[in-house]
Amino acid sequence: MSEGKSSQRCSSCGIFLVDRGSSSFPCPNCGNATIGRCPNCKDQSVKYVCEECSFEGP
Ligand SMILES: [Zn+2]
Ligand SMILES: [Zn+2]
Fold first, then answer.
1. How confident is the model over 8-48, as pLDDT tens digits?
2. Are 52 and 27 within 8 A, CB to CB?
3. Ligand 2 center to 35 CA (angstroms)
4. Which residue blocks in the chain are alpha helix, DSSP H?
5. Which ligand is nearest to the CA of 46?
6. Interatomic CA distance for residues 12 and 15, integer angstroms
7. pTM listed for this prediction
8. Within 13 Å of residue 58, how many CA atoms lie on the same side as its CB?
9. Ligand 2 center to residue 24 CA distance, Å?
């Protein structure tokens, strides 16, 4: 609730998601955290880790 703008970061490499081509979605495990993926990590299928439940996924 504290962040209104696009301050979503890539959950894999940590860069801010600003460009088109990036995506974000709720954690498939806990549904509480939002997973962000930059185009680069998405392209290379880099693993992400949920900050809420430590779920790892492609
Ligand atoms: Zn990334
Ligand atoms: Zn999670």
1. 899 999 999 986 789 999 999 999 999 999 999 999 999 99
2. yes
3. 8
4. 39-44
5. 1
6. 8
7. 0.79
8. 3
9. 13
